[in-house]
Model the fold of this input.
Amino acid sequence: MTQDLSSNNSDTVYLKDYQSPAYAIEKTDLDVAIYPGESFVEARLQLVRQSGLVSELALDGEQLELLAIEINSQSLSKDQYRLDDGKLVLIEPPERFELYTKVRIQPEQNTSLEGLYRSRTIYCTQCEAEGFRKITYYLDRPDVMSDFTTRISAAKSECPILLANGNLVEQGDLTDGRHYAVWHDPHKKPCYLFALVAGDLSVMEDHFVTASGRNVDLKIYVEEKDLDKCDHAMASLKNAMRWDEEVYGREYDLDIFMIVAVDDFNMGAMENKGLNIFNTSCVLAKPETTTDAGFQRVEGVVAHEYFHNWSGNRVTCRDWFQLSLKEGFTVYRDAEFSADMGSPTVKRVEDVAMLRTHQFAEDAGPMAHPIRPASYMEISNFYTLTIYEKGAEVVRMLANLLGPELFRKGTDLYFERHDGQAVTTEDFVQALADVSGRDFSVFQRWYNQAGTPQLEVRDEYDENTREYTLHITQSTPATPECADKQPFHIPIAMGLLGDAGEIALKLRDEELEDLPTDNTHRVLELTEQAQSFVFTDVPEKPVPSLLRGFSAPVKLKFAYSRDDLVRLALRDSDGFNRYEACQRLALGVIEDALAADSGGELNNFTPDERLLAVYQQLLQEEGLDRAMLAYMLLLPSEGFIAEQQSVIDPIAIHRARGEVAGYIAKALHKPLLAVLENYDLRKPYKPTAVDIAARLLKNTALEFLMREPDQAVVDLCVKHLQQANNMTDELASLTALVNSRSPLAADIAPQKLADFYAKWQDESLVVNAWLALQARNANPGGVERVEALLAHPAFEANNPNKIRSVVGVFANANPVNFHGGTDADPEAGYRFLADQVIALDSKNPQIAARLITPLTRWRRYDKQRGGAMRGQLERIKHTPGLSSDSNEIVSKSL
Ligand code: 0A1
Ligand code: ZN
Done:
């Protein structure tokens, strides 16, 4: 039997083909010797056969130069192995043996940022999902778990710090100014969790005492210039460690926990056992250089990676189809952590806005896939919003269906039952079913069917019987993997609002004595295609508050009148649904403007006054969370509005939204200005929920006012820019100035941009924000602007953060310019993006493939626009030597 279970670059890998590994690797001994321009990796693997006879064993290996190979200390002859494309095949290997290989690799040349590579002066690794095969020949799959010992050697002057997973067991000097360190990880792990780091790093140290009284050394390694930006990450780490003990009963399990920050990183961060490696953007923070969003991201990502120690590392994935097992669960855990650290409703609003704009679009596009896909070509393309964010929504539904106590029992059982194992999403759901006795067979469909279900809700009230009925049907559009969907299990949290407030709920079959004391909130469980729920003793026709807290990742259709929405916006007890009602109201008004625009009547358009009336009341409401107020005032984003249209016209959406926003800014000038004037610019910065909320509201007001500002408002904006004591306020003022269409702002914006750059040019992360704000600028000339940014000395062509800040932001967050709305050449944006993808593809295929996303949505646009986008996809497709990453995205979307 030929054992070849890893993915072959050009082929599709199927979940149904899964076979358990033919060999286990009991021990992995690595010796990594780093030299300028080349490194040598010697590996000694103790392999043990797991099943019957194996005639050939294929180990994964890419971009390796094999220098030596031995089995049980005997060199192999040419008939005992062969090198196939990306594989080392051992012929008739013994039942139990030591494999020794020595390979040469070139980290300095490695621009893919997978395997061992060099980021500025630091050598580091990225092995998830399949990067370890670029370090040595191995069974590079998550269900092969091994005991790792790593010896690293390098020049002491270049690389005084040598780190790997686990505990330091030995270190010392060598000849020629070199030194070495040996690390041993006592926990068996798959190779995707392997890490090593070598470089000249400074360290911030602290410690944490676990619930059972063990001391853990905490270390954050950064370049010396960044040592003053580690406090927030360290505090977040300690909060996360405590929270995981309290909420999930999970203690840390090594004596040392390390974080290393590197500038060149494909993703946000990586949970390698005991040695997390972070993109600098997700670990460094200080008030002068980091926005509130940045602080929150650091807190969230530090927690996310830490939480993986249990949900991912102690219990890992059997294969990469199970990716959401660790990612969906861990995102759910980090979201709940952030909610507990700040405001739960605000966090929910932010997460849902992102999910509905971006994940729903993914689920409706050519790359739609279930949270547990059945096949993939390139696993790197499946680190998606669906796996992460929708995966977290699915775990959230399970947690809510069980309630906090049973869910905790279920996760305890899951961790205990599967500690040290590589498992599947079924194992996770089974543990929850076992503790609760619940039947999750219908629920399992969330794991296997893609697409966003749509709920259509109709209501009926009978004055005579005082019965109120909700008729609910569900349907899910076809997606590439499946046209005919079976019904989902959908929890619908709800309440009913009467004239005088919330109505007590009693479903027809319920006994009064079984009802909870707080009886105004209920979770309906929809498991069939159509169901009706009848409430009795309902004194008047209510307004239903449906899907409270966004209890399921679905689209909800209900024919709310505008008056219904006003009632919900002002009076619902569910904070999320108050926000939701504002969004629906605003969306309706923007759609009115779109209709006026298509009739050539936008100039004469006046928005429905109920929207303004709601905003006015909200601005006066006492005790309303300032962040919630800001989000309730913010109009739905252009991306969200686009998602609601059958044919997207991004230019019309930009115009219509702008018109409504301008109108609001004028009508609410006084209260918005008051928000700005009452803001204390000198208050020392703190990233607390209350202070973040105050800044968010002030900067929302500023954005509105700067749409059509008078000189006094422009002066105020400049004052805020100059006197800001933190990056949130500084950047918000500069953004408002740059985005404003007023000549009063346009006259001074270029100078302010230049001043900002001069001030911050040595802070790479601030420069990213400076690039991004220009790439997002919706004023005319977008393509020339981003082209100029690429030529700016601040731009680094191989750095993912810089690429994302310019190319990614332009294509994803500047629809009017990307789609040619302000350009003489309407296809220039698409061509620009395709050019960038083609230029990057051979250097960093993961990032190139991700950039393609906006073009893949071509079917959502009119013929001309869609055709032009498709044309650029064709162009990418015909690039000679196109990577399998980009090829998968392009071929699935054409
Ligand atoms: N597991 C990490 C994310 C991650 C995935 C793939 C990577 O390869 C380039 C890097 C990081 C997480 O969820 O944080
Ligand atoms: Zn993760």
